[in-house]
Amino acid sequence: MRLFPIRGGIHPKYRKELTSEQPIVALPMPARLYLPLQQHIGAPAEPVVSVGQKVRKGDLLARGQGAVSAPTHASTSGVVVEITTVTAPHPSGLPQLTIILEPDGKDEWTDLPDPIEDPFSLSGDAIRERVASSGIVGLGGATFPAAVKLNLGSQQKIETLLINGAECEPYLTCDDRLMREYAAEIVDGARIMAHALGAPGIVIAIERNKPQALEAMRAAAAGFDAIEVIDVPVQYPMGSERHLTQAITGRETPAKKLTAELGVVVHNVGTARAVHQSVRFGRPLTRRVVTVSGGAVAQGKNIEVPLGAMVSELIAFCGGLREEPRRIVNGGPMMGQPLPSLEVPVVKGTSGILALTVAEANERPTQPCIRCGGCVTICPCGLVPVEMAAFIRKDNLDAAAGIGVTDCFSCGSCSYICPSHIPLVQYFNYAKGELAARDRERRRLDRVKTLSETRVERLERQAQAKREAAAAAAAARKAASVPSENKASQ
Amino acid sequence: MLIAIGSLAALGAALGTVLGVAARYLAVEEDPLEVELAALLPGAQCGQCGYVGCGQAAAALARGEAPVTLCTPGGKSVAEALSKRLGVKADLSDHEESVPQYAFVQEELCIGCLRCTNECTTDAIVGAPKQIHTVIRDNCHGCAKCFKICPTEAIKMCQVPVTLGDWRWNKPGAAALQ
Ligand code: SF4
Ligand code: SF4
Fold first, then answer.
1. Is the CB of residue A388 below 6 angstroms from any atom belonging to ligand 2?
2. What is the CATH number of the domain that holds A271?
3. Does residue A480 sit within a domain?
4. How far is the CA of B173 from the centre of ligand 2 (A)?
5. How confident is the model at residue B97, as a pLDDT?
6. Could you tell me which residues belong to the region Disordered (chain A) (predicted)?
7. How far is the C-alpha of A133 from the C-alpha of A85, rounded, in Å?
8. Are A95 and A85 in contact (CB under 8 A)?
9. Same domain? A280 vs A405
10. Which ligand is nearest the CA of A386, by number?
11. Residue A98 within a domain
12. Domains in chain A, number
């Protein structure tokens, strides 16, 4: 297959060797599991269990609400001990409604929906329904409900299902390990998803620095003509949906549009495996593979974790910390977010937990911009980071929006390359949040305006009705009194 | 009967003509600037700025008598829009972004007097005489008019909690030079 170049990008120190040879191991069942109601993009799930209720592994704990949402299932068998707020695995450290489960140690499955023997004879809708009820979301970290994304085929013709095995973030090796160890499951999941999408072709894209994964996937895909396994150059951010699509189609996804516009839908390898498990065995999403790595961890590992385990348990399972970490990151070092503490649960979107040392975090003082243009050259979206940051610094967010700050996907390449260590991407994150907040505020004020106008109208209507009633009453009185006057004059 | 109808009709016609003529000759010139400014204000008529409603506030702004930061519920975005339109530089840095609030009726104290219902400018309070009232939270814009009028202090103003969905990053510190 012919590959097309993508713009910009960087070559950071990958440090994948810390965990790439660590096979996936299961985490011993923790004493408690914490399952937040919001582990996905969209509306939070709504609890359907009550405190004290006994559940078995795979039982529905909270159902999805609305068009874009995802349910949550019990990761093991046990008792629901509390439904309360717990610190979210989010940089804000805000509390979030969470179902707390106390495992009974039996890890016993519930009565699962029947396995689907031949998914290819089913309609796309039936498969989507199964995927939706299994609570599967994008496991690459974006956590968008997978079933919604599988529906894109009903709106436009999808030519290619692109399975993303690029794993371009440094440190992370969970997808690499998944591909090496569960290649057949991923291929099967991909075929089911392509069928649901109505996509004739499947492309599995893997960066060249994962030769064993490439080999394993090629072996598993042999015999399926529709599947092509390709090796893509090692270049951050190759694993971004838009850039991977550009690499295989040569076309750029228009701003604020989906790759589906180009006939391509992208799913992560972990999502493909989850779809396989759900369709072939009826198992909902109850666990995921997490890479625990970084210089401050005693022994980095790839761990299959029941959803809801505390990050501190993962660290303890890795032999604890070797030194005080400078930063704890949720995800990869480039796009990952700092964690408020270790006492937060692993959720569907947790791909990695990194404990970075001072040297790895590499925080250096900011200096004035030397106008080298480095950030402009490497921005994979063709933006001008130096100029956007200058506008944002002066609080001119509209100007920053005018030159595309909302198209920035926070890959962090510009901050990484900047010789003056200007926190460019931090400016963009701030600006995007602020612009979104203003938008929400504007919508709220519009609503208030409509409401108060409706009220004024209502008052006016009522006053009018009163006036009319009074006039009618007066007329009636007049009409009643006139004949009597006549009588009196007679 | 006929006399009554006739006299009323004549009265109506005469008064109508007078009113029509008056409207033509005594019309108050609508200041286009005022109209424009009023469109920028939230239009909730909440009176938190100290004027009777948004129209009066817009008039004061047009006369240059009120600061662009007058509208508390409008927050920074409204202040910015106003300063842009009026071409005045406003120091928004220390414009306290007021924490959004909503009203909550404590049922055990409510006597169902209907006063808050009549006061609310967005019809966010439902209630009937001698029935416990309640606030539709999505419709409440936190102006606290009901809070002020309630005779039994049954209404309390609560802060709208920050959720994961609307949390946002701060601006990088001043140490970040450019
Ligand atoms: S963070 Fe945004 S501006 Fe910076 S390189 Fe990435 S896409 Fe471009
Ligand atoms: S890379 Fe940094 S120093 Fe170079 S132009 Fe961009 S912001 Fe300025």
1. no
2. 3.40.50.11540
3. no
4. 18
5. 62
6. 471-490
7. 25
8. yes
9. no
10. 2
11. no
12. 2
- Are residues B170 and A451, on separate chains, in Cβ contact within 8 Å? no
Has B158 been labeled as part of a binding site? no
Domain boundary among A267, A288, A309: A288
Question: For ligand 2, is residue A372 a contact (CB within 6 Å)?
Answer: yes
pTM of this structure: 0.84
A412 lines ligand 1 (CB under 6 A): yes
Looking at this predicted complex, what is its ipTM? Answer: 0.81
A379 CB within 6 A, ligand 1 = yes
Assess if residue A468 is contained within a domain: no
Q: Is A344 part of a structural domain of the chain? A: no
Q: Of A94, A366, A433, which has the smallest distance from its Cβ to B177's Cβ?
A: A366
**CA atoms within a 13 Å half-sphere pointing along the CA-CB vector of A222:** 6
What CATH fold (topology level) applies to the domain B101-159? Alpha-Beta Plaits (3.30.70)
Helix (H, G, I), strand (E, B) or coil at A116: coil
Range of the domain at A421: 366-458
Contacts of B170 in chain A (CB under 8 A): 430
Find the closest chain B residue to A443 by CA distance: B42
Interface test with A, best of B46, B71, B121, B177 (most A CBs within 10 A): B177
Q: Is A466 on the interface with B (CB under 8 A)?
A: no
Q: Is A221 exposed, middle or buried (0-12, 13-18, 19+ CB in 10 A)?
A: buried
Q: Is A433 on the interface with B (CB under 8 A)?
A: yes
In contact, B53 and B47? CB cutoff 8 Å: yes
CATH of region B32-86, choose from 3.30.1330.60, 1.20.1530.20, 1.10.15.40, 1.20.140.10: 1.10.15.40
Q: What are the structural domain ranges in chain B?
A: 32-86, 101-159
Structure tokens at A357: 């040392």
Tens-digit pLDDT profile for residues A419-469 = 999 999 999 999 999 999 999 988 988 898 899 889 999 999 999 999 999
Helix (H, G, I), strand (E, B) or coil at A218: helix
User: Quick one: A243 and A137 in the same domain?
Assistant: yes
Which residue of A7, A11, A381 sits with most ligand 1 atoms within 8 Å of its CB, as the best mutation to test the pocket? A381
What share of residues in chain A are helix, strand, coil (percent, to 5)? 40, 20, 40
- Pick out chain A residues at pLDDT < 50: 488-490
Q: What angle do CA A405, A406, A410 make, to 5 degrees?
A: 80
Q: Is the CB of A10 under 6 A from ligand 2?
A: no
CA distance B173 to B171: 6
Residue-wise DSSP of A377-422: HH-TT---HHHHHHHHHTT-HHHHHHTTGGG-----HHHHH-TT--
pLDDT for B91 equals 67
Residue B169: list chain A partners with CB under 8 A: 91, 426, 429-430, 433
A416 — contact with chain B (CB < 8 Å)? no
Domain boundary among A273, A288, A303: A288
Show residues of chain B in contact with A441, CB under 8 Å.
75, 77
Close Cβ partners of A230 (under 8 Å, ≥ 6 residues apart)? A1, A3, A203, A204, A205, A206, A248
Q: Give the residue whose CA is nearest to atom 4 of ligand 1.
A: A414
- A387 with A278, same domain: the answer is no
